[in-house]
């Protein structure tokens, strides 16, 4: 009797995906992610003091850029990359040559599903990106392409092929992604609810995009995934990923692309200081109320047929 094969399947999109990590500290958190991340190439964007040495665990394939590298590569245009803010990660999107990007914060760890099994967040993001989206008609069983699901009665057959997925937006257990006012009134709240669901965000609907657990198709939507200029010298903070999410969703709607949200979960380990966050956010709280109606009503020219042409 032949022995069962012990050869592990090749990691999905191993040569087509970069993992982008913004950081100011040693990347010890990668040890937990080693079983899932080690086959992939990492692009580490070091924020803050460029003279500080960032230690990366051995065995990872990576390139590391600090502020001196950003200034050298971009020259006078380097001011478009945020300083002292995690929005510096979009420099990694720019230097990548891969089709897909997964980005994660360095205070995010491997979560467990309700059965206690470690969640391979990267693998789930890849499955989301490789699976169609359904932005034009909502399926009440959520993602109809998942095992055990399908299109419900009354769903138009002409729309069941779906459209390409440009963005996979993952969620978080433990520390919720709250704004400062909500943090202040709910300082002890933790997200313990694991919802086993993925859904396509409908066309015409905006959403608050969190950048700490996010994947996207760089070829389809890369130029739109610019995390707004925040941090040192800027009047508003903590809206960099929101800006990218609003821009990206409007462009995806225009181009007929999909955005999925839900699985996978990561474990968000560290709550940021709500008083510091309030100082960064308070102007943005007013700003978004004026800005969102613009994104809700904007129309793009029909001759814009790619994210590059829209963004330019």
Question: Can you give a write-up of this model?
Answer:
The chain is of the alpha/beta class. It has one domain (about 15-310): Spore Coat Polysaccharide Biosynthesis Protein SpsA, Chain A (Alpha-Beta Complex), CATH 3.90.550. It is about 30% helix and about 15% strand. It is built from nine helices and nine strands. It has helices at about 30-35, 65-75, 90-95, 120-130, 180-185, 220, 240-255, 275-295, 305-310, and strands at about 15-25, 40-45, 60-65, 100-105, 110, 165-175, 200, 215, 260-270. Strands 1, 2, 3, 4, 5, 6, 7, 8 and 9 form a nine-stranded mixed beta sheet that branches. Helix 1 (about 30-35) links the parallel strand 1 (about 15-25) and strand 2. It is globular. It starts with 16 loop residues before the first strand and ends with a helix. The model has no long low-confidence stretch (mean pLDDT about 95).
Give the radius of gyration. Answer: 20 Å
The count of domains is 1
CATH class category = Alpha Beta
Task: Name the average pLDDT.
Answer: 95
- By secondary-structure content and strand pairing, the structural class works out as alpha/beta
Task: Write the CATH fold name.
Answer: Spore Coat Polysaccharide Biosynthesis Protein SpsA, Chain A
Strand content: 15-25%
Shape: globular
> How many strands in all?
9
List low-confidence stretches: none
**Helical content band:** 25-40%
Protein name: UDP-arabinopyranose mutase
Main location: Golgi
Keywords: Cell wall biogenesis/degradation, Golgi apparatus
Pfam families: RGP
